Design the sequence.
């Protein structure tokens, strides 16, 4: 969900009132001075229900797919196992649904997100017009406190939640909104939900939280039996309630940069006490593997004096740059192996999708992570699906892949209050056109087994936080959704999304009937042929 590069450019005209202390957001979460279609009264929301119902009846869910997104017209199928798995057919990798049908998965992240994403209110109440009172029982579900783990008492508000209550009624708004959301996904050609989604009557792909054991919070000593047991126990506790759910696409642990082992982690570990298991393992690896057991050669290269390995454990060496990278890869390999095995021991039924690597930032770790995945999950925000670059990584690792996040948030010329994403598009129509090109290119990639759009509805124009104070925006505020904060589908986008989704499996089938592109060996020097089996 995090971007390698984020650019936030705000339209000065829209935010002039913010600087003057006046409200910039109306009661429905829209920019007060925005151009374009708007909700102006509660009746507009209620009228949307029947209007959308008519459109959905004219464009119902396709009958060409099973309930998990499996393509029924492929002309072949695999033995059903009751869970998702992978298989290769005529040179192309496919997900196989619990019913045994081939699937090119198309999902939507952050679904149904009925009380998310929120925006911080404390310290900037003047930015918002028409907020209900914090003690208003009807709109209580829209209020929260201490988001993102920041316990400073900041109160947050979700305009989307309030709009669902106004639209569907205070008694069963959750049930009705989720039912409508699921109807949308099916009618728009999606297989189900994606990352950051909660379990429901649809396919979903949960992200497990490694908490304080994620490398971004300090590299855990995975050679310490006590810490290993804690990591394994944390994963087991999260997995257990869902291990028999056929709707679960696959597990992942952590997200993007937070799971990357860095050179700094290695250098920090080499400064730890002599009896630290992780430090001992790094030095043992260096002596035994990198220097073929020769302590003398290592001492010369590292410029240290130690009569034996025990004394070396007590030093704080700084290896040459290239050797730090070798140690980093060793440490990362052991970490990814532990996480993978912990998930598979807790749940041998489901796929493991890794930790959503960012190929444009951490390409060097693709093969390391892929080695310990059934399908390697990645996030990529780019205007085009760069098949050559991705296939180079995929072929090198010889593992199927799935994209967990991509999108093209429109900027609307700065007229609706949203931030400008680093891959900007002007409107929903352009976003839909790019979506179609992405899906077609990915469907024709023999290694890619699916895509997930980030995300179901737009982010708040004042940002999703965390934050506290008088700034106009805290955190991301992009128009990344298929629907608006007022629960209205963006039809210029959705229409093109639906067209592409309903052709994706056919595009893949057609591509698989043609000769495969030449191996990388014929184009850029070569990679190993064949495909790896899932890690043991």
Sequence:
């Amino acid at each position: 969900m995090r971007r390698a590069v984020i650019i936030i450019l705000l339209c000065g005209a829209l935010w002039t009132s913010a600087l003057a202390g006046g409200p910039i957001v109306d009661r429905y979460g829209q920019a007060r001075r925005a151009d374009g279609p708007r909700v102006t009264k509660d009746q507009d929301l209620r009228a949307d229900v029947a209007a959308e119902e008519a459109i959905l009846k004219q464009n119902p869910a396709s009958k060409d797919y099973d309930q998990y997104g499996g393509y029924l017209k492929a002309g072949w199928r695999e033995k059903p196992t009751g869970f998702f798995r992978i298989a290769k057919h005529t040179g192309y990798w496919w997900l196989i649904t619990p019913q045994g049908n081939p699937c090119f998965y198309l999902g939507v992240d952050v679904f149904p997100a009925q009380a998310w994403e929120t925006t911080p209110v404390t310290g900037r109440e003047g930015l918002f017009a028409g907020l209900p009172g914090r003690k208003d029982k009807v709109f209580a579900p829209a209020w929260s406190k201490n988001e993102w783990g920041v316990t400073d008492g900041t109160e947050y508000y979700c305009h989307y939640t309030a709009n669902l209550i106004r639209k569907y009624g205070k008694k069963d708004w959750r049930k009705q909104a989720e039912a409508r959301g699921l109807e949308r996904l099916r009618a728009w050609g999606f297989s189900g939900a994606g990352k950051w989604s909660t379990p429901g009557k649809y396919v979903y792909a949960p992200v497990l939280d490694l908490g304080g054991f994620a490398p971004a919070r300090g590299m855990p000593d995975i050679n310490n039996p006590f810490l290993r047991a804690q990591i394994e126990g944390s994963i087991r506790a999260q997995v257990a309630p869902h291990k028999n759910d056929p709707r679960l696409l696959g597990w992942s642990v952590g997200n993007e940069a937070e799971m990357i082992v860095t050179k700094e982690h290695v250098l920090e570990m080499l400064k730890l006490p002599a009896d630290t298991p992780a430090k001992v393992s790094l030095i043992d690896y260096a002596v035994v593997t990198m220097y073929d057991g020769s302590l003398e050669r290592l001492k010369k290269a590292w410029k240290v004096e130690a009569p034996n390995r025990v004394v070396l454990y007590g030093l704080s060496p700084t290896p040459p740059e290239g050797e730090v990278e070798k140690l980093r890869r060793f440490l990362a390999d052991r970490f990814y192996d532990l996480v993978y095995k912990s998930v598979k021991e807790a749940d041998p039924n489901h796929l493991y999708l890794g930790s959503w690597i960012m190929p444009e930032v951490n390409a060097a770790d693709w093969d390391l992570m892929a080695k310990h995945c059934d399908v390697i999950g990645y996030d990529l925000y780019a205007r085009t699906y760069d098949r050559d670059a991705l296939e180079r990584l995929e072929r090198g690792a010889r593992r199927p892949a799935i994209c967990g996040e991509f999108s093209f948030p429109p900027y609307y010329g700065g007229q609706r209050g949203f931030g400008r994403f680093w891959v900007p598009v002007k409107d929903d129509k352009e976003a839909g056109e790019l979506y179609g090109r992405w899906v077609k290119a990915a469907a024709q990639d023999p290694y890619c087994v699916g895509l997930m759009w980030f995300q179901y509805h737009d982010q708040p124009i004042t940002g999703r936080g965390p934050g506290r104070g008088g700034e106009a925006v805290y955190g991301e505020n992009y128009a990344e959704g298929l629907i608006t904060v007022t629960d209205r589908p963006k039809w210029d986008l959705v229409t093109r999304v639906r067209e592409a989704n309903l052709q994706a499996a056919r595009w893949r089938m057609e591509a698989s009937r043609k000769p495969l592109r030449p191996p990388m060996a014929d184009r850029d020097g070569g990679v190993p042929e064949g495909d790896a089996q899932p890690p043991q």
Remarks:
- Residues 265-318 form one domain.
- The longest strand covers residues 401-406.
- The CA atoms of residues 20 and 127 lie 10 Å apart.
- Confidence is low (pLDDT under 50) at residues 1-17, 520-529.
